Amino acid sequence: MATKKKTRRPTGKRPARRPSRSRRPQRQQPESLRLRSMAASLTVRDLERSIAWYRDVLGFVVGERWEEGGQVRGIQMKAGACDLMLGQDDFAKGQDRKKGEGVRLWVATVQDISELAGRVKASGWRLDREPSETPWGDWAFALTDPDGFKLTIIQE
């Protein structure tokens, strides 16, 4: 069996440095926050209904479950590298508390959103906005979940 012969650099000589392709700008000091991911957590009226909606209408996958006293209190829903936590409302702030006001989740995918929107409509769910071009040039559609949380899905 043949082995590769290791080449040695002459002592005292360093390899020539490659020119930098692009210099990164100096970071702001103190450094600003740099995140790698973000997950949202929504408190929902009926956890089982929301799990089914995010799974069956949008195509999320069920992840971890959090139980308290033998009862499911929260669940992780996964879509690609993104997580959405759903928590069961304990109604401590009242049964008629409005949910979803002032909240819109903007999510991006490389999937064909016309196809995704078609799947949503085929499940019997109504879109708030059909797939169309946004004023800034993205292709997107919008919908509202069972608790009133708004989602806009953008095609990258």
Question: What is the CATH homology-level superfamily of the domain at 40-90 and 100-155?
Answer: 2,3-Dihydroxybiphenyl 1,2-Dioxygenase, domain 1
Our measurement of the CA-to-CA distance between the termini, rounded to an integer number of angstroms, reads 50 Å
What do the pLDDT scores average to? Answer: 86
Largest sheet, in brief, is: 4 strands, mixed
Label the overall shape: globular
Say how many strands there are: 8
SS element count, helices? 2
CATH-derived topology of the domain at 40-90 and 100-155: 2,3-Dihydroxybiphenyl 1,2-Dioxygenase, domain 1
Q: Mind telling me the CATH class of the domain at 40-90 and 100-155?
A: Alpha Beta
List segments where confidence is low: pLDDT < 50 over at least 5 consecutive residues: none
Q: Provide the CATH architecture of the domain at 40-90 and 100-155.
A: Roll
In angstroms, what is the radius of gyration?
24 Å
SSE string = EHEEEEHEEE
Determine the fraction of residues in helical runs and give it as a percent range.
10-25%
Assign the structural class, choosing from mainly alpha, mainly beta, alpha/beta, alpha+beta, or little secondary structure.
alpha/beta
Strand content: 25-35%
What spatial order of strands do you see in the largest sheet? Answer: 1-4-3-2
